[in-house]
Specification:
There is one protein chain. The protein has 215 residues and is mostly beta strands. The protein folds into 2 domains: 92 residues, Nucleic acid-binding proteins (OB fold (Dihydrolipoamide Acetyltransferase, E2P)), CATH 2.40.50; 87 residues, Nucleic acid-binding proteins (OB fold (Dihydrolipoamide Acetyltransferase, E2P), Beta Barrel). The chain is built from 2 helices and 13 strands. The strands form 2 sheets. It has a 5-stranded mixed β-barrel with strand order 2-3-4-6-5. A hairpin with a 5-residue loop joins strand 2 and strand 3. It starts with a helix and ends with a strand. The relative contact order is 0.12.
Amino acid sequence: MDRAGAVVLFFSVLGIVILYGVSLLMVPQTVPLDEVARYEGASVRTRGVVTDVSVTEQGYVQLRLAANQTSLLLFVIPSDQSGIVRDLSYGDEVVAEGRVQVYRGEYELVTAEHAIAKVNTSANRILFVPQLAREPERFEGTRIRLAGTVEDLYTSVLYIADGTGTYRLRAKPVSGALGISELQEGDTIVAEGVLFYDSTALRYELNLIAVEPLS
């Protein structure tokens, strides 16, 4: 290689190194959850507590974070990199990075699973209905706590649904189950019970042990 070629190669490599260094320095600004709306169109990093996990009809995951008396919807873009959404629980505190946009009149953060990091974990894990629906076999035969909305409340059975009505689970109170008599349709609750598979009806159900209001 002649001297001119070596000089060109040197500056090419130098340019790549400089661009890489600049990209490392371009870290999104960290803003409180209640100020995210001020950064429409920009990339930011924010922090909040998980209060809901839902799945759209198209299969996209949505999270809702709360902090400072404000809630924010997170639209999670599918990613080849594994993330933490499947393991999130009600009350977990996370940091999320993404772009702020308005969709149907509501501000949201467009992010990806690998851009969400768990900061603090809730002491007692509470699942969301869509999480359970995606891989119920993972929890079969175990005692779980499930957050959802009461639907179709009958004397001996009730249905626990997600906020969008896309997924729901049949629950049968066991003898002496706590908190059942006070339930009304539309209540948001935490249901505790044992998940089992009904081979006759070909569906998963919850042997309901107790319920409590979702605070």
